[in-house]
Design a protein that fits this description.
single chain, alpha/beta, FAD/NAD(P)-binding domain, 2 domains, 6-stranded antiparallel β-sheet, 23% strand, globular, binds flavin-adenine dinucleotide
Length: 403
């Protein structure tokens, strides 16, 4: 079937949906279609994340993440309210495990303040007033605006918002880009468009490479494994995070809470081969393995990160006992909990810049005449999605479509 659109968006995750919403809010007469390869929503990162509404203090002030996370926090809450989705204002404590982390806490605080985020630093003795189960070395940081919600409910709300504005979603629609101008195909439809947005999450680099964009990157997926228990077993009231590693990009083993009363440890960031490899028996792909190996080789030879340290610290956490043991550096009583169970893992699709071996930290947008590619939509992409979608619409798409 032939479908004539102004804009086709590849991928109905939070980035694709937010972009569609922003386009239609701005120009209600546009015909916007999202092609989604799965038969339903939220099967990948947007529905498999921690559900943390980040405040925006981790990111370098000149980054897109810093630009969108703080405002996204506010806008995600607004969307949740409109659709009756619970949000809990649990806040976050960032604790130091040693002197070195204590000194880096100050840098993290300054960065957050530069990003316009509300933060406080307190001495160790005050931690019991915020989170009595956590421990710290000398000081801790308090982020009152970090919250939690349910990731799948948010995706569903975005779908409802997009559809109510007149957008359409075509499920079971796996598309790819070719150099052919202004059309793409799935197995049964042909979509013609003025502009195409590649918001395919972990697959976005594959699609961009097929038209010669982003060839300087390789995709290295990192598996995020969680262990969860009931709040009754471990009555934490706040999210508890360590000070992040100075050069490696992940946040370290931490505690999050879920809207339905669970306490989770994780996610880990274990390098794996497949970007949809949610278990050892599914998601294997030769081309994913080749990409991941390329990415690992470049990381090892580059000097931007300590890949050996990532491997050494992350792989053992696949063993529950070791994961829980490490978490006790933040919350000692976690050791007494016996019934930890697995939660569905998520996969962080992280791009490696091949010439330098650098794990890209920020969202990357490459826009050409009739195509915009969103690469490396990593955390906090869920929190940032609403202003990020508006930025994509305003900066790269609307003008080209309206001309
Ligand atoms: C373990 C983990 C924890 C995280 N925790 C948080 C958190 O607490 N807070 C936060 O703000 N962020 C978090 N994030 C980050 C956040 O989840 C992502 O940044 C965000 O979901 C990315 O959205 P997306 O739309 O780009 O990708 P996705 O949700 O992956 O959507 C992409 C969609 O494109 C579809 N697609 C792919 N290829 C094709 C094709 N060829 N044709 C058609 N469709 C296609 C896929 O099926 C998918 O539905 C976390 C991520 C992970 C992995």
């Amino acid at each position: 079937m032939q479908k004539k659109c102004d804009v086709v968006i590849i991928g109905a995750g939070v980035v694709g949906l937010s972009t569609g919403i922003a386009l239609l809010q701005s120009r209600p007469s546009l015909k916007v279609m999202i092609a989604e390869k799965e038969k339903e929503l939220a099967l990948h990162a947007s529905g498999r994340n921690s559900g943390v509404i980040h405040a925006g203090f981790y990111y370098s002030p000149d980054s897109l993440k810093a630009k969108f996370c703080r405002d996204g926090n506010f806008e995600l809450r607004k969307l949740a309210k409109k659709y009756g989705i619970p949000v809990k204002d649990v806040g976050k404590v960032v604790v130091a495990r040693n002197e070195d982390e204590d000194s880096r806490l100050g840098t993290l605080f300054d960065r957050g303040i530069a990003n316009g985020v509300e933060l406080e630093i307190h001495p160790e003795e005050k931690l019991k007033d915020f989170e009595p189960l956590a421990i710290t070395h000398n000081r801790f940081m308090w982020s009152p605006n970090t919250g939690i919600s349910d990731s799948i409910s948010i995706v569903n709300a975005m779908r409802d918002e997009f559809l109510s504005l007149g957008g359409e979603i075509q499920f079971n629609s796996k598309v790819n880009l070719t150099e052919s101008h202004g059309e793409i195909h799935d197995s049964s439809n042909q979509f013609t468009f003025k502009h195409v947005v590649n918001a395919a999450g972990a697959q976005a680099d594959r699609i961009s490479r097929s038209v010669g964009v982003g060839t300087e990157y390789a995709m290295l997926p990192f598996m995020g494994v969680y262990r969860a228990t009931s709040e009754k077993n471990l009555p934490l009231q706040r999210l508890v995070y360590p000070v992040p590693h100075p050069i490696n990009p992940f946040l370290g083993v931490h505690f999050t809470l879920t809207i339905d009363g669970k306490v989770k440890i994780g996610p880990t960031a274990i390098p794996i081969a497949g970007r949809e490899q949610y278990s050892f028996t599914e998601g294997w792909s030769g081309s994913d393995i080749a990409q991941a190996l390329k990415g690992m080789r470049s990381l090892i030879t580059g000097d931007s990160h300590d890949f050996g340290a990532i491997l050494k610290s992350e792989w053992p956490k696949i063993i529950q006992k070791l994961l829980v043991k490490e978490s006790t550096e933040l919350v000692p009583s976690a050791i007494g909990v016996k019934d930890w169970h697995r939660k569905p893992p998520g996969i962080r699709a992280q791009l490696v810049h091949l010439p330098t071996g650098k794990l890209e930290q920020d969202f990357i947008v490459v826009s050409q005449a009739n195509a915009t590619h969103v690469l490396n939509a990593v955390s906090p992409g869920w929190t940032s999605s609403i202003p990020f979608g508006r930025y994509l619409a305003d900066e790269f798409i609307l003008q080209r479509v309206m001309n």
